[in-house]
């Protein structure tokens, strides 16, 4: 992987200072990789190859190594996603409480059509995820960084309206 | 279940006493409730004394394996020749389990205090709280509490004026159940893929960054301040049944119940009371099955459930495990075949793919179950599932592989009729193609 053409670096100014502060918490530079990738995703909405090259340079790693880590963790987006990324749990405990109906309601009201696809207006991407660690609050849904407990079919439309 | 939650009279609330009380989240509110007294006391004791108290208390790991916490701490080198680390396991991803989330959301300082005491006991200056990436709210609350603790000098270069350095940092995960496995967790902190490591070496010899490390669950660590404050004997005696299982335990009750939520009971509490009286079945429903310790423990049928006492030995006595205390309840409306298939999809998705038995076995199991659910299964498939389950057990670096086989094997054993109904056509297919 190589950076060609225009590339606007992620780690400048305030973000560079934050990364430097994070580096002091660990005895190795490599350990700052997950936090650095989170900062890229915050800034760009996903993690492009070009940013992996920048992260690799900042932490003395190879770009291939960084990509290997990115691909391991499901929360890092390797492709652009909708303006709002919606994760609905459908693992057994939530499934017993009707989580699949909640997913269907999200697909219907968002215009996404199918799981993993982005709505034509670019507003939503919806995915099913495995247990969110909130099984007593079925169905938990993560919309961007908002963790929402107890979503039922009748609440979906109103919930989506809060994310223009 | 919403908060504040009025405890049921049969609960014994220690860890969950302040769930739902927003004031308890703040440093001032926590101190007013007796917070950080235990840390002060512990810092006045020698590390060996703290380890001894926790050993005598009988506190066992609440993350799943139930290993005695004090004994684990005693494995750390006594003579410190290199940095020691504490890793707090807040990856909480075992389906059915949602207790650590509530501890962090409502009583973040209780966890910080528990971590700090443990760090003193194992002579660590740095601790990492590894929180799963999806717990955005818990991360915000924990970070705010850590900031407060640094501001007042409870943490930092001279923690509580003790001359000891205690630094605690949050390390955010990024979506991988396997990072709850302690050696995968350490790899993830180091900035690596979350692959479990072969043991030995054990973490106390060579853990995170190759240094002596102790990994403990959130609930384990949060129990420690109570033990320091009130003594090891008091903690032991809380148990209703067995001296080998002491103290209280949070059970996350979910699935087919009327009042899902966290219930804190003393060890040895009857499982049937937890289901029937505390969480309650839904109107007109009867109990079919449950998993008392998260999705990775053998499924109990109704008779076994009614006979089971909730402690480490009681669960083993019924052929299951206490695990993480995530209690998944299935009532008579549950389709066991479909729900077991959903569990296997979880494991297939979460396998790190290092070991062949796990990488291939989890996916193969899912495909066979999907075939059965689509009406295309054969009776031979059931034997095949059992055979694959056996090949997936006890053969891999970590037990994720075993965990996938467990619900399948126990499910076929106890609910074989439901599987056969899909195969014979007595039950209509619920999946289109396989
Ligand atoms: C696949 C797998 C996932 C695990 N997930 C968790 C988890 O999310 N949280 C946890 O505390 N322990 C988890 N464990 C158990 C840890 O490996 C470890 O035993 C535990 O954190 C030790 O803490 P304790 O002794 O205080 O229980 C998991 C184990 C395995 C094999
Ligand atoms: S199964 Fe849905 S949050 Fe655990």
SSE topology:
The complex is a heterodimer of chains A (164) and B (434).
Chain A: H1 13-23, H2 33-44, H3 49-58, H4 63-72, E1 84-89, H5 92-96, H6 99-110, E2 124-129, E3 141-143, E4 146-148, H7 156-161
Parallel strand pairs in A: 1-2
Antiparallel strand pairs in A: 1-3, 3-4
Chain B: H1 27-32, H2 37-43, H3 47-57, H4 69-74, E1 85-90, H5 99-106, H6 108-121, E2 126-131, H7 136-151, E3 167-172, H8 182-189, E4 213-217, H9 218-230, H10 232-237, E5 248-255, E6 261-266, E7 269-270, H11 271-279, E8 287-291, E9 300-301, H12 302-307, E10 309-310, H13 312-317, E11 326-331, H14 336-350, H15 356-373, H16 379-391, H17 400-424
Parallel strand pairs in B: 1-2, 1-4, 2-3, 5-11
Antiparallel strand pairs in B: 5-6, 7-10, 8-9, 8-11
Helix pairs in contact in B: 2-6, 2-9, 3-6, 5-6, 5-7, 6-9, 14-15, 14-17, 15-16, 15-17, 16-17
Bound molecules: flavin mononucleotide (FMN) and FE2/S2 (inorganic) cluster.
FE2/S2 (inorganic) cluster binds at residues 89, 91, 93-94, 131-135, 140 of chain A.
State the main characteristics.
heterodimer, A: 164 residues, alpha+beta, Arc Repressor Mutant, subunit A, Glutaredoxin, 2 domains, 4-stranded mixed beta sheet, 7 helices, 4 strands, 40% helix, 11% strand, elongated, B: 434 residues, alpha/beta, 5-stranded mixed beta sheet, 4-stranded parallel beta sheet, 43% helix, globular, binds flavin mononucleotide, binds FE2/S2 (inorganic) cluster
Summarize the structure.
With 164 residues, chain A is an alpha+beta fold. Chain A is built from seven helices and four strands; from the N terminus they run H-H-H-H-E-H-H-E-E-E-H.
